[in-house]
Amino acid sequence: MTKAEIQLVKQRFGIIGNAEALSRAIDVAIQVAPTDLSVLITGESGVGKESFPQIIHQYSRRKHGQYIAVNCGAIPEGTIDSELFGHEKGAFTGAIGERKGYFGEADGGTIFLDEVGELPMPTQARLLRVLESGEFIKVGSSRVQKTDVRIVAATNVTCRRPLLKDVSGRIYSTD
């Protein structure tokens, strides 16, 4: 992308800064957007990681689908599976009706899982199944459901050299 095009993206998404690494990260987000790759964004807390899933969603074929941002660290461990995958009526005390969950709601769209590392290990295992096959099971159900959702996740765990690899084998790096 040209500097002018990157500047337009910065204006559209309220991004302030002129560091070369920031421009490179925006360029990578635009390049990966047309693919259906799941994306992991790394960086320290407070650096603006939440802007990049929005860029990826808006420049993707999913832009007309639902975009849901989930702060994984803010949802209590006891309810996170229900929030993400939904639940059946009577699945637990207080489940007075069926709930679709974020993966059901965002079918055809994008889910941004902020601070994905905060998810409990059993939930991470269920998330892995969604990443691998697009399948999930609601809490209290035995019926497998399919979803067509793109997952963009973020963590503040530092990665020395973040890389993205698309289905054609092209590697994108923010270095």
UniProtKB/TrEMBL annotation:
Molecular-function GO terms, alphabetical: ATP binding
Pfam families assigned to the protein according to its UniProt record, in alphabetical order: Sigma54_activat
Keyword Coiled coil annotated: no
CDD domains from the UniProt entry: AAA
Domain of life according to the entry: Bacteria
Domain spans labelled Sigma-54 factor interaction: 15-175
GO biological process: regulation of DNA-templated transcription
Keywords carried by this UniProt record: ATP-binding, Nucleotide-binding
Gene3D superfamilies: P-loop containing nucleotide triphosphate hydrolases
InterPro entries: AAA+_ATPase, P-loop_NTPase, Sigma_54_int, Sigma_54_int_dom_ATP-bd_1, Sigma_54_int_dom_ATP-bd_2
PANTHER family the record matches: SIGMA L-DEPENDENT TRANSCRIPTIONAL REGULATOR YQIR-RELATED, TRANSCRIPTIONAL REGULATORY PROTEIN
Name this polypeptide is given: Transcriptional regulator
